[in-house]
Amino acid sequence: MRARKAREPGRPPLPRSFGAAGQVRSHGIRAVAAILVAAPAIAALLAACEPRPADSEAALIAKGRELFFNETFDGNGRTCGTCHRQEENFTITPSFIATLPKDDPLFVAEFIPALKHDFENPRLMREFGMILENLDGFDSLATRFTMRGIPHVLALRTSVDSPQGPRTGWSGDGAPGDGSLRGFAMGAVIQHFTKRLDRVPGVDFRLPTDEELDALEAFQRSIGRKDELALPLPLRGTIAARGQAIFLDDRLGKCNICHRNAGANASLGGRDLGNASFNTGVEDLPDHPARLAGEPVPRDDGFGIPGDGTFNTPPLIEAADTGPFFHNNAVETLEGAVAFYTGQAFNNSPSGRFLASIDSNGVGIRLDATQVVAVAAFLRVVNALENIRLSNESLEKSTAFGFFGIAEAVTLLEHGAHETEDAIAVLRGAGLHPEAVAELESAKRLIERASRSLVNRRAHTRNAMQEQERARAMLTVEKS
Amino acid sequence: MNGERGGRRQMARSWAVGIALLALCAGTPAHGQMATERYIPIGKSPGVSQKVTSVGTIDSLSVRQRTITITEPTVRRTVAITARTRIWVDRSRLKLPNLAGRFDDLQRGRRVEVKYLDPDTRLLAEWVKVEATTP
Asked: Complex ipTM, two decimals?
């Protein structure tokens, strides 16, 4: 369906001429004078109408956002947003890294001499989007480290908590102190923001204050999805619907055992177990891309010191647009990530053997190519639905801003456009729902038009939201 | 009848899977990361300091029993240093990097922060930060 023009019907066209030149000048002077007199009152009125943080939590989230993207903590120039880019779904990929200027703080190891060795591996960062972590301690920097991908921080509200306590980072032990998301920021500053490898607080960085930790936690818990899905969804696509059935089948796909409702939590007799950690054998994959590059990549032992080989479960709803996959970015595509669970590395792992032990045929997970693609199609569709939800949420918020809030509105429109682009890419990547993709393309054009428009911004935005609702209706019969 | 029996079987299987799953992941209780903890000065550990740690001065110690007795503002407490207890020398006030320490670094009169393995009993130390007064 084509985008409709937003001009209001029935409005007469503007006259080409206002009459004699003198009259025009006289009217013009009077109009300018009237505007000058009324301007302060109008400005005050419009400013009063601008949306503000409704309560203290909103204010805390706003402060956390500011810190997340702009606060360097007097360190090497990095912020949380250096690696967790909003336009990259709060992670970062090699293709995005390739677009950054040489002096981007991500590359501090390339231009700060004190960080040249044992801080990052620039080749693995640029080629595979990997960062260096010293999770087992800082005593032998040259040999004791892990190379990991950057996890997105979407839907943390649904994925951090477990009965054993909070789990942060790929192996659940990313935060010092009480191990909470609140403490995570402090660990990140020490690991990634330092000017020198001495890591002296007050010299190489400053530590976040309690208030800053509160704000950063509040912001991170506000990002993305806040609720779990309730599967099964009434999906329209044949392949995606079959993929969902396989996903939910505890005797076939078995995905729902650890990823209940495609989230990050396991289930116990139908009860939510919270976020759990498992050894799924990812470290035993042959031909690990980073190792093929010939760079030193020690085996990652996961949770604890020494590690027990386990990594915590990420949510899958956000998976399709946040690859590469697994803690070491070992697999580039979603289909490859699903196929991992049918391979030897998984089926010989403690988790694979556990699944085999409760299977009447002694099988861990065994899927054929069509089934792998179907499960991936299901995950692509739920990801696209989440993209549409987030996009419309941003677009809706943007309509609350008037003329004096145009900068905020355009920022929100940009966020919305990113989500729409993701939905398009996620569906198109597997040839799914071409009609919905066309609707989303149309919505994207309307969002771009809204961003450029001074007069019809809200009308274009609402039209874009309608287009996206039409796209949603092509994916599922469920109402938004 | 058959349906009811099938439902019970399904429920029993679901519980069995859940319990086994719990056993599979039960060995990984959440904990604070030790690597970066070392660089956090005494009294600044998020969510831990002043809540489940003691900050005080070493009053006495027993090398043979590997215990230290610390005086907090209101209480005196003796805590055991086990082979698994991590000891760090906090040199942040000297603007120097913190170091991995040993039992020998725990000396009378030094300011320490102790995190307990069990915050209720407060008998065994999980980690100890001891402040350095000279480089």
From this structure: 0.87
